[in-house]
Every structure is written in structure tokens, then in C-alpha cells.
Amino acid sequence: MRVTRQVMPNPRRDDLPTGGEGGPDAKRPGRVGIRTCVACRQEAGKGTLVRVVRDPSGRAAIDPGGHARGRGAYLHRDPSCIEIARKKKALERALKAVVSPEVWVQLGV
Q: 34-107 is classed in which CATH architecture?
């Protein structure tokens, strides 16, 4: 006697909002990754922040594309946030690396 299994429909509906940024719905159009600025601690979309990354060699560099490998930290492009991050050493703490003066010049300080 052969038993057949009944296929159950997928209980997840695509028209309902999801609870998080990751998972299977992360690539849906209109979804924006939310990140926190290391200086002012306010959340913003990835596109409005600049990413600074510590590369595998341990140096900090600006990541214009936002996809470079390594430990990353996000910062508003606002000069006041950049100055706060510099004074409080927020980028150094987040990246666990020394941020060179060249990076600060590129950020606009």
C-alpha cells in the first residue's frame, strides 16, 4: 500500500510586512537596511550614511559601495556627526582600529 503525502500551502503571505530586515524578504524592492550612526546613535537608512571599514590588514578606509569585506561602522555625512565621532573616538572604538588622518580628511573634517 502506497501512502502519498499532501503538500501543505506556504503559510507565509508575501503581501504582509515582515518583522525584520534580514531573511527571505531582505531583497524585496523597497526594503532599506537600517543602520546606526556611531556618533549620534540615531538610526538611518544605509544610503544616508557613509560606511567606514576596517580591512583585513587592520587599516580603516571609507567604503563608498558599502560592500567591502571587514568590520564596518556607519556615520552620518553631517559635519557635526563627523566631529563628534572624532572627538569621542567613536570610529576607533567601533572598528577596534586606529583611524588615520587621511580618512578624516576624506570624511571632510
A: 2-Layer Sandwich (3.30)
Q: Measuring CA to CA, how many Å separate 54 from each of 4, 5, 24, 31, 63? A: 54, 51, 28, 26, 9
Name the residue ranges covered by the structural domains of the chain. 34-107
pTM for the full predicted model: 0.71
Give the bridge partners for 45, in sequence order: 34
Q: Which of 108, 75, 78, 70 is nearest to 90 (CA)?
A: 75
- Residue whose C-alpha cell is 508575501: 14
pLDDT tens per residue across all 109 residues of the chain: 677 777 666 555 555 455 555 555 556 677 778 999 999 999 999 999 999 999 889 999 999 998 999 999 999 999 999 999 999 999 999 999 999 999 999 998 6
Pairwise CA distance, residues 21 & 64, whole Å: 21
